[in-house]
Amino acid sequence: MMKNYLPVINTHFTLFGGHVETVRPGWKWKPEEHPAFELMYVIRGSQRTITETGEMILNTGEFTIIPVETRHTNYAVGNEKMTYFCMHFDLDDPTLKYLLIRSYADRIITSRDAEYQDLKDQVEVVMQLFKSKYDLEDQLDIQIDVLKIIKILVKVLKRDHHLQDYQNDINQFMLCQKIASDLKHRLDYEIYHASDPKSVSISKVVKSHHVSQSYVLKLFNRYYGESPQEYLIDLKLSSAKGLLLQPRVQINEVADKLAYSAPSHFSREFKKHFNITPRQYIQDVSK
C-alpha cells in the first residue's frame, strides 16, 4: 500500500527588500551586480537595461529578471518620468536557480507571454504590502506572496515540459555558469583594479576546473549559444558601454582598460558587435 507523506524540504529563501521609485528623464544607475535575483517591473515609462550579455528596452507593464551576480546598468528612456518596482531575492535550491537563470536571463516578459497576467497580478499584490513597520505576520505574508511569484515563473516551464529536461543537465549547467563567473571576475579585476590590464586567459580558467577546453566549448555552445571567446568579448563590450558613459572619459582610455592593442581595434569590434561606433553610442545615449 502506498503511503501518503510529505517530502523533506530544506530550501533557504531570502528577500533582500524591494521598492517603488519614480525617476526623472535621463536617470541612470551605476553598473552593479547583486548576490541575488532582481525582478524589475516598469510601471510607467521605459527603461534601458544593459547586462553582460545583452541589452533590453522595457516599456510600461513589462518585466525582466536579472540573474544572480549579473552586472547590469539601468537608464530611463525618453522625455517622461519613469516609475518602476524592483525586488531582490535568492534561494539556495540549485534546480530553482537553474530554471530561473536558464529561462529568464536577458528576456522581457510581456503581455504576450503565458505567465504575464498571473505575474503582474501577484507582483501588484506584493506592492500592496508596503508599510512603514512590519510585524511577524506581515513578514510571513510577504514571504508567501514572493514565493508565489517564483511559483508562477516555474509553473509555466513545467507546463511547457521544460522542467524535466532542465533537471537532467543541471550539473553541467552549473559548471558552465561557474566557469563563466570566473571569466567575469578575472575580467573585472583587469578592468577595475589592475594598473596594467592584461587579456584574460580562457585556457587558465578552464584548466583550474580540471576539464578540457573542448568540453567547455560544448557546454558554452549548449547553454550560452556561443564559444567562451565570444562570451568573453560580450562581457568586455558590455563593460565598455558602462565605461563610455563615465564623465569626460576618452575612448582610448576605455580601450586600454579592456586590454585592446589599439583604440582602433576596440572601435572596430564595438561597431561590429553593436552596429554603432563608441562615439556614436555616447552621443545616442546622451540625447
UniProtKB/TrEMBL annotation:
<dbReference type="Pfam" id="PF12833">
    <property type="entry name" value="HTH_18"/>
</dbReference>
<dbReference type="InterPro" id="IPR037923">
    <property type="entry name" value="HTH-like"/>
</dbReference>
<feature type="domain" description="HTH araC/xylS-type">
    <location>
        <begin position="177"/>
        <end position="284"/>
    </location>
</feature>
<dbReference type="InterPro" id="IPR018062">
    <property type="entry name" value="HTH_AraC-typ_CS"/>
</dbReference>
<dbReference type="InterPro" id="IPR018060">
    <property type="entry name" value="HTH_AraC"/>
</dbReference>
<dbReference type="GO" id="GO:0003700">
    <property type="term" value="F:DNA-binding transcription factor activity"/>
</dbReference>
<protein>
    <submittedName>
        <fullName>AraC family transcriptional regulator</fullName>
    </submittedName>
</protein>
<dbReference type="InterPro" id="IPR014710">
    <property type="entry name" value="RmlC-like_jellyroll"/>
</dbReference>
<keyword id="KW-0238">DNA-binding</keyword>
<dbReference type="InterPro" id="IPR009057">
    <property type="entry name" value="Homeodomain-like_sf"/>
</dbReference>
<dbReference type="Pfam" id="PF02311">
    <property type="entry name" value="AraC_binding"/>
</dbReference>
<keyword id="KW-0805">Transcription regulation</keyword>
<dbReference type="InterPro" id="IPR020449">
    <property type="entry name" value="Tscrpt_reg_AraC-type_HTH"/>
</dbReference>
<keyword id="KW-0804">Transcription</keyword>
<dbReference type="InterPro" id="IPR003313">
    <property type="entry name" value="AraC-bd"/>
</dbReference>
<dbReference type="GO" id="GO:0043565">
    <property type="term" value="F:sequence-specific DNA binding"/>
</dbReference>
